[in-house]
Amino acid sequence: MAFEQPACRVCEFALVSRLFCFSCNALQPFPLEVDFFEVLGFPISFEIKSAELEERYQQLSLELHPDFYGSAPEAEKRLSETATAVLNTAYNTLREPTSRAGYLLHLLAQKQKLDERSLPDGFLGEMFFLQEALDELLESGNADELSGMRDEMRKRQKDIEADYAPLFKRLKDHPEDSEILQQLQTHLNAERYLRRLLGRIPA
Amino acid sequence: MRRIIGIDLGTTNSLSATVFDEGPEVIGEGENAVTPSVLSLSNSGWLVGQEAQERRISDPENTVFSIKRLMGRNLDELGEIANELPYQIVEGQRKLLKVRIGESEPYKDFTPQELSAEILKKVKQRAEKSLGESVEKAVITVPAYFDDAQRQATRAAAEIAGLEVARIINEPTAAAIAYGLDEKRDLQKDGLVAVYDLGGGTFDISILKLSGKIFKVIATHGNTQLGGDDFDQAVVETLKKRIQHEHPEAEFDDPESKQILKKTAESIKIELSFSPETDYSLEFPKLDLLFTGVFKVEDFESLITPMIEQTLVSCSHVLKEAKLSTAQIDEVVLVGGSTVIPGVRKKIESFFGRSPHVAIDPYKVVAIGAGIQGHLLAGGRRDFLLLDVIPLALGIETLGGTFSKIITGNTTIPIEENETFTTNVDDQTSIDVNIFQGERELIKDCRALGQFKLLGIPPMKAGLPLVEVMFRVDANGILTVSAVEKRSGKKAEIEVIPFHGLTQFEIERIMEDSFEHAIDDFNERQLIEFRQTAERVFRGIEQNWNVAENSLSKLDRDEIRKQMEVVRQSMKEQDSQALKAQLDVLGDLTRPLADTAIGRSILAELQDDA
User: Which of A76, A127, B210, B294 could form an S-S bond across to A72 if both were Cys, CB 3.0 to 4.6 Å?
Assistant: First the structure.
């Protein structure tokens, strides 16, 4: 997906991150609804290498953090504080595949109306049994069986996660394909459901 | 560059530190570096530190310690602690705690913020004296597990003390900075570090990831009501039992007996760090009772074991949060006075399976880290960055008393999150929102921080207004809330009523009431001091003028008269350094006078000063 490269407000150098110019070290004012990919300087895509994300996050933190603006004018101080807050949110959102998928879907599907409660065929039935089994186990408190169930649910979660990359790849070739978008939404819903169930199993 | 010092405001002791040319160090030497966090109200005002420490037994009703345990809390939350403390604690408006001083009416009641402010003032003054310059800004440390109310209380205390808080940072993180940036450090440059911080009243465990210039806190856990004070209390209970075994009638509820027991317990605890057993002797003059005995280290260790186990539960919890096992932890760092106890060290060692780092004095390490952070904030260096987290989730009350998290625990700060609210009734112009902090599902298990009212919502049909509320946690870990109605673009006003803290109005009133307020500032204190010196010197000159007439030329005498006039003018101004400079000139002019036998005694002061 092509996007316009914004330029630095001071030196007009092309910005890597929407928040900061690495060329002249100037903090950049940014729109309220800034896109998290632009914040971290990655193209809008599901594929992000976690080492690269980590490095960019550190690099930007070392420039934006309010600790380095202790004696700066008040406006700049405040800008550094909000920029760092946005950086932290962007980083937290893009770091994990699920939240990244959710965010990306939200960006791409903006104009399309998706069914936000859809679940895969047969999923609810499956979950119903899983939930019953979990209730029983929680009551009996069998630690081994509980941890077995946890592993099973995690595996199910991983399977769903593994589908994100190919789905987003297909979406790249067919940008407005509402069927793929809906499929992604369905996957996300299923994973959210699993996550809630997992949360009920005590450590 | 204005210096920003670091202050470790501890339950038992407080210290300050800064970065000198030779490197970071605590301010002051030996005993002078440490201010016991104790204060005592005398006829001439507050005595703070060592002087107050001495009055714990002689004047227990008017002597206050362990105030940190009261910060941002209410009476219910204090529980047993309120009864164990020898001073009186009462409840003021909005359930705010107050310490009551005096044996009878009229009592004087003080908030923990005011009392902490007295300690901060003392630390500030001592730092100023030692550095020879005024101190206006500081980085102040708090336990990582302090919630929003406790942080707000700490910031209010600093404000009352006339200190600008450049940053509030977490104690274990400060310790990690001190270790991580120590030139002689043997700590790995990259790796996972566990900081175990057990102080006088609080416990924290934090896991940090060090990578290059960045110190990132991954997860933190703790207990703000567990520390060395509780070890003392366990010893006190044992002592009471032992005495009552022989003297069943003995009661120890009076402040003096409580203090005697507490002081003895403290010294038993300290002795047992060095020897397998210790003798003690307790004398209660009011009860006409003398009791002696022996305390063995085994007895002590079995008393504190349950409490140490509790800290290890926190350690397991934080590792789980960070998705790590003990084997993955590269280093363990110990902080806080209670970690010098051999029994504590043994347990930590066996839990983590490695010997901990103790290279930097565990009493000083937090202050030193804060001093380094102050240096960074003042612009003195920018070769490292600390990324800290908010310890507990922040959220609001939703239907059915459930806690809806808006910012999750262990999120890197600063952070902002939005939440949209709407109305239930047509033409509703305000919405009440209750803010809570905690990790549990129901608000009854979380801490109520305050309530805010969204005011000035334009009248619309129910459900139509969209009030977007922004929850912002700044780099100090402190929450602020702002709101805007999105349909009209109108800024909704917010009124936050703190449940545990002081309002800005209350802080200001305390500052006005403070009888030392007028001489809060270093410049003003110096002005007063130099003005007094000038007065004494003038008297000295007048008394010895006959000597001057005999020994000095008229020219010299006129010079002195002229300079006295200049000093007099300068005394009316507000610049202490200018006054000092003029006094120095007068000192030079009167030196021949001071050299004469009669002048020496009085004018010598000026020569010393100059």
Answer: A76
pLDDT in tens, B289-318: 899 999 999 999 999 999 999 999 999 999
The CA distance from A120 to the nearest CA of chain B, in Å, is 28
Q: Which of A83, A109, A102, A91 lies closest to A37, judged by CA?
A: A91
Residue A117 burial (10 A CB sphere; 0-12, 13-18, 19+): exposed
B534-570 residue pLDDT tens = 888 888 888 778 777 877 888 888 999 999 999 999 9
Active site residues of B: 8, 68, 171, 197
What angle in degrees, to the nearest 10, is found between the helix axes of B342-352 and B297-321?
40
Classify strands B415-421 and B13-20 as parallel, antiparallel or unpaired. Answer: unpaired
- In three state form, how does the secondary structure of B190-231 look? CEEEEEEEECCCCEEEEEEEEECCEEEEEEEEEECCCCHHHH
Q: Which residues pair with B295 in a beta bridge?
A: B278
pLDDT, tens digit (0-9, with 9 covering 90-100), for A47-97:
999 999 999 999 999 999 999 998 889 999 999 999 999 999 999 999 999
Contacts of A61 in chain B (CB under 8 A): 214, 385, 387
Q: How far is it, in rounded angstroms, from Cα B147 to Cα B276? A: 39
Helical (H) or strand (E) element with B542: helix B522-543
Query: A37: distance to nearest CA of chain B, Å?
Result: 17
B149-158: string of b/e by CB count within 10 Å (b at 16+)? bbbbbbbbbb
Q: Which residue has the higher pLDDT, A155 or B183?
A: A155
Is B268 within 8 Å of B301 (Cβ atoms)? Answer: no
pTM, to two decimals: 0.80
CB atoms A66 and B413 under 8 Å:
no
**3-state secondary structure at position B426:** coil
Residue A62 and residue B214: Cβ atoms within 8 Å? Answer: yes
User: How buried is residue B354: exposed, middle or buried, by Cβ count under 10 Å (0-12/13-18/19+)?
Assistant: middle
Percent residues over pLDDT 70 in chain B: 92
Q: For residues B26 and A93, give the distance between their C-alpha atoms in angstroms, rounded to a whole number.
A: 41
Residues B413, B170: Cα–Cα separation, whole Å? 12
| Least confident interval from A179-183, B41-45, B397-401, B468-472 | B397-401
* Pair A157, A194: CB distance under 8 Å: yes
The CA distance from A107 to A39, in Å, is 14
Coil, strand, or helix at residue B253?
Answer: coil
Q: How far apart, in Å, are the Cα atoms of B223 and each of A59, B197, B202, B226?
A: 34, 11, 6, 6
Give me the residue from A61, A70, A91 closest to B385, CB to CB.
A61
Cα separation, B355 vs B358, whole angstroms: 9
Q: How far apart are CA A152 and CA A137, in angstroms?
A: 14
How distant is the alpha carbon of residue B272 from its chain centre? 28
Residue B75 CA, chain-centre distance (Å), reads 20
Give the integer Cα–Cα distance in Å for A120 and B435.
Answer: 37
B167 touches chain A (CB under 8 A): yes
Q: In angstroms, how far is CA A184 from the centroid of its own chain?
A: 14
- Distance of alpha carbon B495 from alpha carbon B591, whole angstroms: 64
Contact A67 B385 (CB under 8 A): yes
Paired tokens of B20: 């000198």
Cα dihedral B357, B362, B364, B368 sign = positive
Which ranges constitute the DSSP H helices of B132-227? 148-160, 171-180
Token pair 């305050």 is found at B450
